[in-house]
Amino acid sequence: MQENGSQRAVKIERFYHKAFDRFIYRKRWMSFLGLLVGIAYSSWLLLSIDGALQVSTGELSQPHFAWNKTGCEKCHLPNVPIRKDAWGGDRVEHIRDNNKNCNGECHAVTGHFEAKTKTSVLETESCSTCHREHLGFDRNLVEVYDAECSRCHANMASVANHPESPDSKAPQPISNFSAENGHPNFASLKHDPGTIQFSHAQHMRPGQPKSPNGFDAKKLEMIPEKFRGLYQDQVDTNQLIQLNCSNCHTRDVEVKGYEGLELADSKPTASVQSTDHMLYKPVEFDKHCAACHDLDGLAHGLDRKQMNEAIKELTPRKILDYLKKRFTEAEPDSLVDGNMLKEIAEEIDGRKTRLDAILMQRENTCAKCHELSKDPNSIVAPSNLKRKWLRDASFKHGAHLMVSCKDCHAEAYKSSSEVYDYSSNTKSKEESSIVMIDGIAKCRECHIQDAQLRSQKFTTLKHVATADCVDCHRYHSDPPKPRASVGSMDTAAVKLSDVQLFLASEKAP
Fold it and tell me: For 66-82, what is each residue's pLDDT tens digit?
């Protein structure tokens, strides 16, 4: 027979809740003990170095790794949150204390564009916001996330101090390199400030003649003997010298296996990169020009006074050297030959005429390549040749060894049809004003910010790369202020300032 509810109720003690339960006291003691353990553990976390490691979010990067276990107090101040998104972390006084702990205690660097950024903005920016720690030993602290850069650069009007000049334009906002309007064109590529008149098309022709099949086309035997070894492997079937870019543009650091990269027909296939090779060396007259452009024994780069003195000294010496050589080679019977005396007279007159032409700046002398100076003490104006074209970027040629030079400098490589099309060929002066470096559109072909688009492009183009801000831009700060001279320390201070300037802006001292 099934038991009903009344029968079941009879079995339950009505005053069971008043009965003694030995487990309830155990639970209360366990709760009290847990509270004591929690208080003790919290105290250990706050007061002990080993305890502080328990709340660490990860391993420190290499520059700070020495403090990984015993140096938390080097960065973390008592009762001062280091993160801006923590409670109280956005207070100006906390940000100031944290920044001072970095810049001043350890790092002697200038502020972030103090001259161009509003003070109210700088007061709310902490070092740790952009330079994030505890992300592992290999974490590069200068690899700032794009979001941290665009947070300010996408809204420059509210961040930057407006220029005082009414003609100056406010800084252009920057948000995304790959987007058409997300990054401005490279301002430093707008025009060539150089004063040298030079034609790449002319020098890329076989023999560099002034007209097709011109008699002035240079053959190996036409250049001084001391230079022939440099060009003996660069002659065509007609014995004409065929120059290539590497004859004038020399790498600062050579990379083995890529010796022919600068040739017009080079097709590099490997993906080798070099962190050492940054820029090409400056062009030097004595190394790259003197073989074809003879100054008749005069040194290059003289001012007007030096030129006068050099010509006065050089003219009789050159004539005497010629006479010694001519009389040594001549047969005894020809020494009284009227033709020989006439030849000697013409040589003496011609030698003097050529040197005087250089002195007086006549046609085909210094003015052939240089812009003449308005300074009476100088002969030519400063060349103003750029070595670094992308002024605000950290560009390295070594990182682009997997592409040919002509991929980005197409203007400098003329096809055979263009080479001899003299009707469309510009003069040296006009051609020199052309910047033969492709702009931002060429960079965007390989540098893509969106990861998905980059992956899709990789199926057809193997040289796809990221487009992060830190790929081209480095730690940006105002150049160091000049240091005061202090006795014998003056020279050392200047050198240190030069080094700091180079590290900050990558401009050569």
Answer: 888 777 888 888 888 88
Query: What tens digit of pLDDT does each residue of 339-359 get?
Result: 666 777 777 777 667 776 676
* Spatial distance between the Cα atoms of 485 and 492, rounded to a whole number of angstroms: 10
Q: Which distant-in-sequence residues (6+ apart) come within 8 Å of 366 by Cβ?
A: 358, 372, 379, 380
Q: pTM score, two decimals?
A: 0.70
Q: Where are the alpha helices (DSSP H) in 117-173?
A: 119-122, 127-130, 146-153
CA atoms of 96 and 77, how far apart (whole Å): 12
In the chain, helix, strand, coil percent, each to 5? 40, 5, 55
In sequence order, the β-bridge partners of residue 143 are none
Distances (CA, A) of 468 to 112, 182, 427: 20, 13, 40
> How many angstroms separate the CA atoms of 412 and 158, rounded?
42
Half-sphere exposure of 420 (CA within 13 A, CB side): 9
* Percent of the chain whose predicted confidence (pLDDT) is above 90: 7
Residue 14 CA to its chain's centroid (Å): 89
From 451, 456, 449, select the one nearest 472 (Cα to Cα): 449
Alpha-helical runs (H) found in 11-118: 22-47, 49-52, 92-102
Q: What is the pLDDT of residues 261-280, one digit of tens each?
A: 777 666 665 566 777 888 88
The Cα 434–Cα 20 span in angstroms is 100
